[in-house]
Amino acid sequence: MKIMEAVPNISEGRRPEIITAVAQAAQAACAEAKLLHIDSNPDANRTVLTIAGTPNGVRLASFAVLKTAARLIDMRVQHGAHPRLGATDVCPFVPVRDMTLKEASQQAVLLAREAAERLQIPIYLYESNATFPERKDLAFLRRGEYESLPQKLKGLPPDAGPCSFSGRVAKTGATVIGARNILIAFNISLNTTDTRPAKEIASVLRENSGGLRSVKAIGWLMPNYHAAQVSFNLTDYRQTGLAQVFEACRQEASKRGLQTTGSELIGLAPEEALLEAGRFYTPLTNQPAVLIEEAVRNLGLNKIRPFDAHRQILEYRLKEMLQTFKQSRIGLG
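Below the sequence we write its predicted structure tokens.
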């Protein structure tokens, strides 16, 4: 039963009609793929979609996302707090069940070729699909963001698609595609609107500055939250979990006379990540419901916006998806 997940990030978080159109295109693309979650932020001007299903179905749905975003989003007028390269900024494939990273990488290559040939979008391959070691890192490929593309396409040619900043490419920008393991996007708010301490904390805690293992971080302002945030990517939550990141951020905030005021998960998170956070705070119980409740309470996951475990835990959504497939008699071979 092979199950793959895709997490395409589109550069639109403010216009509901565009977000809806992209979501509907993803859902309608193939019966073997389901849209599990949509997470939009107007300050970041970004929407994260989570799609799961058969490898072929997820690839078809992801292509529908790229195609619709390229048609509706004009990067020449797009701005937001989140770094971005194109209308669909990045589209990772994640092996979820009975599937290897190599198999997900093969699907990523197919999507990259199709998007380059049919949509004429410059495609950079990253993570397990990287063609050069430095291209493994999304931050390296995205350095300078969309505004750097006229020079980037010449000095750092894409792996597929056009290499010139033509009128069409100027509108769509470029997309980064590749296979990776599960990543958790985790943002922590501070009781300040000054981004300087958030950026300082990000610099201290990210791995490439000598901080926490398997952690990437940036600082930014979220005006709708009236707060600066430290935005983390946990590339291996088994090495550094949610509680470790939250407590380290709280300590660094305290050193600067600040407090953390809550956190949020972007997209879906694996159940084990929340259970492990619960064990960190409440080591004397093994009851899953209690552990998740303690994780939500201690991490402040309900303080920025409501947290719904049944909507934001990956395994719960996959169970619903599999039940739908069973009822529709769709085989996951």
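The mean pLDDT is 97.
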